Amino acid sequence: MDPRHTTRDTAAAWAVMLAVGASIVAAFIGSGALGGTPIQNAADGWLSADGTPLAPGTRAFSIWSVIYTGLAAYAVVQLLPSRRTDERHRSLRPWAAASAVLNAGWIWVVQAGWLALSVVVIVALLAVLARILVLLMARPVGGALDAVVTDGTFGLYLGWVSVATVANTAAWLGASGFRAFGVPVDTAASIVLAVAAGIGLLLALYTSGRFAPAAALAWGLAWIAVGRLDGGTESVPIAWAAGIASAVVILGTLAARFLIHTPRRRSPGRGVAEGVAR
């Protein structure tokens, strides 16, 4: 093995570790734990659980604890000697680091109250996570550890950021005074939720029913339903639309998982690993 290649891989692995660490520190600041303004209070409260009709309920954001724990574990796993020169991890590292930097950048932008820029950043983050999914699908899972830590974490990350992008965009449009071309709010929100469910179905088809992205997407949609019934920005029609969208994503993913025919044969070990990833 070329020593220079190994050195580059080691440097890239440590860069990912530092980027993930910075993202986690930024998250603590964004929570208000280290003196920053909590995200729900930043940007005039537009990103709070009651900021818009498409905002998830407060407890939905607890998923970040799972995602950050997974990212920390991923940063350690990809640094292991056995993973440093692995082609799958090698291809993921620049994108994983970019996702961590964008996540931290989003928190700082929101802290500054720049909602329009926050939409640009979160859309970029969503694009990076979509690219990561493509890379993960292009190469077989390297065992159960990678299936859970790598594929599972980035699947959850993608699914949740998909919902967060919808909520963030709604917050920016609401703060800008946008009125959906005169369409009633309930109708406009329901259309957006139907589109989100459709994207979830496409994602299920593309991944042959991987569970992690669907679970996070359905989680966010379900909490939008809760948020419209818990006494804040109430709307029974939106709650129904969000609940149905969540169910559609889960049922569609289960259907894709068990009904889509996969022609290639898997070795027993790989089958177990890919089952965990999905």
From TrEMBL:
Arranged from A to Z, the UniProt key words for this protein are: Membrane, Transmembrane, Transmembrane helix
Q: How does it sit in the membrane?
A: Multi-pass membrane protein
Record localization: Membrane
- Looking at the record's lineage, which domain of life comes first? Bacteria
**TM region positions:** 12-34, 61-80, 92-109, 115-134, 154-175, 187-206, 211-226, 238-260
Q: Does the keyword Endoplasmic reticulum apply?
A: no
Protein family according to the UniProt entry:
Belongs to the TspO/BZRP family.
- Name of the protein this chain belongs to: Tryptophan-rich sensory protein
**Annotated source species:** Arthrobacter halodurans
